[in-house]
Every structure is written in C-alpha cells, then in structure tokens.
Amino acid sequence: MGLAGLVILIFFSAIAIFALFADKSGLDKTLVTEQTLKPDCSFSTTPAQEAEGIREVPCPPSSSFPLGTDADGRSILTLVVQGSRISMLVGLVASTITMVIGSLVGIVAGYAGAWTDRSLMRITDFFLVIPFLALAIVLAAVFGSNIWVLIAIIGFTSWPGTARLVRAQTLSVKEHLYVERARALGGSNWHVISRHILPNVMPVILANLILTVAIAILSESALSFLGLGDITRVSWGTMIDQAFDNGALTIGAWWWLLIPSFCIVLLVLGFTMVGYAFDEIINPRIRER
Fold first, then answer.
1. How many whole angstroms separate alpha carbon 91 and alpha carbon 139?
2. Average pLDDT for residues 119-148, to the nearest whole number?
3. What are the tens digits of pLDDT across the range 64-115?
4. Which of 128, 153, 127 lies closest to 224 in space, CA to CA?
5. This model's pTM is above 0.90
6. C-alpha angle with apex 80: 79 to 84, nearest 5 degrees?
7. What gap in Å lies between CA 3 and CA 21, rounded to an integer?
8. pLDDT tens across 89-101, in order?
9. Residue-wise over 103-121: b if at least 16 C-beta within 10 A, else e?
10. Is the separation of the CB atoms in 277 and 206 below 8 Å?
C-alpha cells in the first residue's frame, strides 16, 4: 500500500514540477478564444441548449484535446497540469504550518504539565469544537480569497488534532529513564526537549504530517468549490467550481467535472496510503495486528 501511494505521489509531484516550466499561455481566455479551433473540436450548441441560453459548449475529449476543454476553449489537460501545482502547494505549506503549531503546543503542554498543560489544552479544545468548514468560510470571507490567505486559514485552523497527538506522545516519552537522567545531570529544558523529546516524537509528527496534507488538499478544494478560492489561479477546486457555475452537468460536459475530481481523490488517496504505511512502520502494535 505504501509503495502504491508513493508511486501516485511521485506521479503528481512530477506533474507539478513540469507545470512550473510549462507554457501558461493556454490559461489565457482571450488568447484561446481568439484562436481557431480544429475541425474535430467545435463549440456547437443544440437548439434546446440555445433555448436555455447556453451559447458555448465545452469540447469533449478528442485528438486535438485529449481531456476536452472548458467553456472558454481552454484545454482541461493544461488546467489539470497547472492546477496540480496550486493543490500541492496548498497541501504542503498548510500542513507544514499545522505541524509546526501543533507540535509546539503539544510538546510544551506535555513536557511542562501543570497549569501550562491545562491552559494550552483548553485553547486546543476551543478550536476542536468549532466546525472547521464554518470557521474557514467566515475567515475566507473576511480576509479575502488570496491563495496565501487560504493557506494560512487552513494551517491555523487544523492544528488541534496534531497538538493532542504530540502531547500524548510527549507524556509517554518524558517518563523514560534517559529523560530523568538528563534532568538529574542538570540538563536544561531546551536540552531535554531538543535532544530527547523531539527526536522521539518526530516519527509521529511526520506520519501525521503526511495525513494532514490530504486534509489540507480536501479543504482547499472544498473552499474553492464554495467560491472562496483564489479566482486568479487555477486549482482543481476552482475547476470544479467553474464547471458547476457553467452547468457542466446540464450540458453533458462530464469531463470538465470528473477529471479534476478524480485527480483530487487520487492525490488524497496517495497521501493517505503513504501516511498509514508510515504509521504502521513506526508503530509496532499496528504492524503486529
């Protein structure tokens, strides 16, 4: 399972890297609509569609456009390639923010104990009981739909689960004899945390980080689908949002909706498979079952 997930991640990572150097002129609606479409891919509408006010119909998959086009004549293949870059960026950066905040809160709470632990856990509980999607929608509506604002919203609202997981592991590690020995020899709190606590907690943090990337990608897709994504950038979530806005289901443009949705599912599945495999490696009890 882990190898299969790794193959999926390598595939999408290669696409995202390719997108950095690929020609982006295909994203310009003006340039695309001014070009002449090839004979096997024309925007023809039926009388029934014209009666419903539909003037442009996306081109289905053909030899000219392997994955079809959207209503503006842009290749779905080009949009998927460019969208992979944004989806991967949001997932990796937002999950990194989540990991840093959650790990910091969890280690400090677990190691310090007493009132510090209680205070930090009450703050964590406060964020846990707030519905994530509702909070993210409110913050996105207040601060705007910039891609970096979206990353910050996902990162700063997804850390409580990581904090509780890291705290539990820290409570277990700090009871080991080598930690007590380091304290007895006069080691400072920073020395004990950086040399003994953090190295033993890091495998759990990394396993949780991989799983959090999948959640961040789904969160970005959900917010973009609700119209709160960055409309100036192409992502798989904005593709689905535009497909629904243009009535892709009504006009039978299944490729416009299905292909980005399949990419999201496949990428999330890849991160999930690698995350569970990594968790099985570092957790002997799971491996035994």
1. 18
2. 82
3. 778 878 777 788 888 888 888 888 888 889 999 999 999 999 989 888 878 8
4. 153
5. no
6. 115
7. 28
8. 888 899 999 999 9
9. bebbbbbbbbeeeebeebb
10. no
Closest CA to 2 of 166, 253, 258, 210: 210
Residues in the chain: 289
* Closest to 260 (Cα-Cα) out of 6, 7, 10, 15: 15
Amino acid identity for residue 260 in this structure: P
Contact 189, 72 (CB under 8 A): no
Strand partners for 69: 75
| pLDDT given for residue 101 in this prediction | 92
Estimate the share of the chain in helix, then strand, then coil, as percent rounded to the nearest 5: 75, 0, 25
What whole-number distance in Å separates Cα of residue 121 and Cα of residue 132?
A: 18
Sign of CA dihedral 159, 161, 163, 166: negative
Give the up-direction half-sphere exposure of residue 179: CA atoms within 13 A in the CB hemisphere.
18
Rounded-to-integer distance, Cα 19 and Cα 82, Å: 5
Rounded Cα–Cα distance for residues 221 and 3 (Å): 26
Q: How many CB atoms lie within 10 A of CB 280?
A: 17
The torsion defined by the Cα of 114, 117, 119 and 122, in degrees rounded to 10, comes to: -130
Q: What is the pLDDT of residues 34-55, one digit of tens each?
A: 444 444 454 444 444 444 444 4
| pLDDT for position 284 | 56
What is the rounded distance in angstroms from the CA atom of residue 217 to the CA atom of residue 205? 18
Identity of the amino acid at 185: L
Q: Considering only CA atoms, which of 11, 193, 226, 46 is closest in space to residue 107?
A: 193
